[in-house]
């Protein structure tokens, strides 16, 4: 036995059977375990259980490129009529953005829209041509998807756009059928009743090794977990090394001599170690994902710098929370960085499809900020307006808040004389 280890408790006779009957022993673990299970269920399932119910203002581009002349007796061509009808349709699931084709492509490429509906230049001419004998070429409406915004978000936009296109086809079909009257035979009548063909294409392609738009979410989650777990491991390891916590590995138990250091200096030590160790941990995250697993990734130097800064911001936040809250700091940090962050990240379920509470959290929760930054680097050519600029800003805010909060709390505790001294075991 190490000379630093305490001697075994002499004459220990207390048995688990006698302790398990004590209600006070059950109270705190039962309360924390059940409340945590209940809150986790509410928070995680509450964000994804009914996206269609909570869907509001999903941004979708609406492009009217129709250059045809208005039909006789009508004030506008059919493309303009269709676009006006889509914008004025009841419901608020979509935020239709009237853009040119070039503007729509730019917003697809920057991740500002989840999809697009394009009315082509010859839409009116092709539609009116169906009323002539022998016509078979149907007009087309094109639905563009944006898988870089996530499979669910892109799917929702595609469904909304397709539904709008189908409704436009049926509306136009009624007019054409009425104009044709009884002169249309069976085949022509079917063509006129539903004249528009809907063509679905990828508006902003991503690589085959992008997890259908999910690698950004999982990569950001790995950065969060690396910062969270690394911060807690450093916190516990330093406390054990300085003699403020027991060190146990299997049957081995050690309590080292207590080092005379105040809370502020302890926090500084932990943060410096976090800054150093994070270089290795964030590098290994990138090595595993890019080099070993082969996810599609470009801008690799930028991705490494972002990965390091993002992981470090989380790690510093964990150290500050542990310093402020002590024993329950790990639970508090888990809620801040993981429990509240995952459902409000917007990387799996669009923020437009989650309850308002999660949209509120998304303004400051780290997972949303890191997810946007990683997605911009991986899918949208590292464009600042694709979310990378905001991500850098919020990482900087995270650094400042962690340092100010952590050192303000430890300085306060030190001034009040709240020392961490633990008597040495006899």
Automatic annotation (TrEMBL):
Compartments, record wording: Cell membrane
Membrane-protein topology: Multi-pass membrane protein
InterPro entries attached to this UniProt entry: DUF3533, T7SS_ABC-Transporter
Cited Gene3D superfamilies: abc type-2 transporter like domain
Transmembrane segments: 25-45, 272-295, 301-318, 323-342, 391-410
Any single Gene Ontology cellular-component annotation: plasma membrane
DUF3533 domain mapped to chain residues: 32-395
Keywords recorded for this protein, A-Z: Cell membrane, Membrane, Transmembrane, Transmembrane helix
Presence of the UniProt keyword Membrane in the record: yes
Family the UniProt entry places it in: Belongs to the ABC-2 integral membrane protein family.
Full protein name: DUF3533 domain-containing protein
Lineage: Bacteria, Bacillati, Actinomycetota, Actinomycetes, Kitasatosporales
């Amino acid at each position: 036995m190490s000379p630093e280890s305490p001697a075994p408790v002499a004459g220990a006779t207390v048995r688990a059977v006698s302790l398990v009957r004590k209600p006070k022993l059950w109270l705190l673990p039962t309360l924390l375990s059940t409340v945590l299970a209940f809150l986790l269920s509410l928070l995680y399932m509450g964000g994804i259980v009914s996206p269609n119910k909570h869907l509001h203002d999903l941004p979708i581009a609406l492009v009217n490129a129709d250059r045809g002349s208005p039909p006789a007796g009508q004030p506008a061509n059919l493309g303009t009529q269709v676009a006006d009808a889509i914008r004025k349709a009841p419901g608020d699931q979509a935020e239709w953005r009237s853009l040119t084709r070039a503007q729509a492509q730019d917003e697809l490429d920057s991740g500002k829209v989840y999809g697009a509906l394009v009315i082509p230049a010859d839409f009116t001419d092709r539609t009116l041509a169906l009323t002539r004998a022998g016509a078979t070429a149907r007009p087309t409406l094109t639905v563009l998807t944006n898988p870089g915004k996530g499979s669910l978000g892109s799917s929702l936009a595609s469904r909304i756009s397709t539904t709008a296109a189908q409704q436009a086809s049926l509306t136009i079909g009624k007019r054409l059928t009425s104009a044709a009257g009884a002169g249309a035979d069976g085949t022509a009548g079917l063509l006129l009743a539903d004249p528009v063909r809907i063509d679905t294409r990828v508006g902003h392609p991503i690589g085959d090794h992008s997890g259908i738009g999910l690698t950004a979410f999982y990569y950001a989650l790995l950065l969060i977990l690396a910062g969270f777990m690394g911060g807690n491991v450093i916190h516990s390891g330093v406390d054990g090394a300085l003699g403020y916590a027991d060190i146990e590995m299997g049957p081995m138990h050690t309590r080292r001599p207590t080092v005379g250091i105040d809370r502020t200096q302890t926090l500084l030590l932990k943060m410096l170690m976090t800054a150093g160790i994070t270089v290795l941990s964030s590098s290994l995250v990138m090595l595993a994902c890019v080099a070993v697993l082969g996810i599609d990734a470009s801008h690799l130097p930028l991705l490494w710098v972002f990965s390091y800064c993002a992981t470090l911001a989380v790690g510093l936040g964990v150290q500050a929370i542990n310093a402020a809250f002590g024993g329950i700091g790990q639970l508090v940090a888990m809620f801040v960085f993981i429990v509240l962050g995952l459902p409000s990240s917007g990387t799996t379920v669009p923020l437009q499809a989650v309850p308002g509470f999660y949209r509120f959290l998304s303004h400051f929760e780290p997972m949303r900020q890191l997810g946007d930054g990683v997605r911009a680097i991986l899918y949208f050519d590292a464009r600042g307006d694709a979310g990378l600029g905001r991500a850098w800003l919020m990482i900087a805010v995270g650094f400042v808040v962690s340092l100010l909060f952590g050192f303000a709390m430890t300085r306060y505790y030190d001034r009040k004389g709240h020392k961490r001294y633990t008597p040495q075991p006899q």
